[in-house]
From TrEMBL:
Keyword Membrane included in the entry's annotation: yes
Source taxon at top rank: Bacteria
Signal peptide residues on this chain, from the entry's feature table: none
InterPro entries: DoxX-like
Transmembrane regions listed in the UniProt entry: 170-189, 217-235, 240-259, 271-291
This protein's name: DoxX-like family protein
Entry keyword Membrane: yes
Keywords associated with the record: Membrane, Transmembrane, Transmembrane helix
Pfam families linked to this entry: DoxX_3 (PF13781)
Amino acid sequence: MNRKPIYVEIPIEAEMEDLWKASQTPQLHEQWDVRFSSITYLPKRDERDPQDFSYKTKLGFGKSIEGWGRSVGTFNGKDGSRTSSLHFGTDQAISIISEGKGYWKYIKNEDSTITFLTQYDYKTRFGKFGTLVDTYFFRPLIGWGTALSFDVLKRWLEKGEAPRSQYSRLLSNWMLTLLFFFVWVYHGLVPKVVSMHPEEVAMAASLLPPNLEASSVVYAIGMSEILFGCLWLFFPKREWLFRLQILAFPILTISAIIADPSTLTHPFSPLTFNSSLLVLSVIGLMMSRDVPSARSCKRKR
């Protein structure tokens, strides 16, 4: 099976020395690169020797993968460009990666930006099974992680925002995404499509003209809510989904109260429930305007 090397490229507006330091200093590198939890340079016998290092990647539940690496040399081009070549691997049997090689390149552009790019490839364990897992799951995942990390580095150098803050905002954004996916799909599937709850039908009937069948409308609304919930996972511009919800939740709240004013006294009133979702939508909109993304990078040479 022919697997392409991982390639990631991004322009960064920064000084060459700042970018070099942020990517070549272990204490700085481990802050923005989501692939590594820690990186440690090992002592060298001679300054001319390649730089050996060790790395650790935490998997969760107390598990981690530790590996080795070697920076086999750097090259400074006449145009000011730089290259850093790497040889890396791990002896831990749990890791799908056994050994790999790659490079980072720093290319000065005429517009005062630096094109920061990487290309690397690796050998896998576990035979054909490992090849399949790598091709359809791990390689896309680590490629995405590389691209996301490059965008975090870019924002750090250009805007001064620490990587930890960026990743916290990204995590919060994804938590809201999964929450709204669950809320819309659940409320569309369970009370409307599956059980056709009597209260849902009664509320629809009170708002509809007599010639429309309330149960059919409830079913259609339920399917629409399920589809809208799925958009939260697949639609890339979630900012528009947050905007739509900010408009929709007040309308849904008012409609529910008009249809059945007694809901204001229910334990789970649509007033408090939808108000909470409205506030979360506003918070999500504010965060979604500046979230690091792997889509900011070029992924093919």
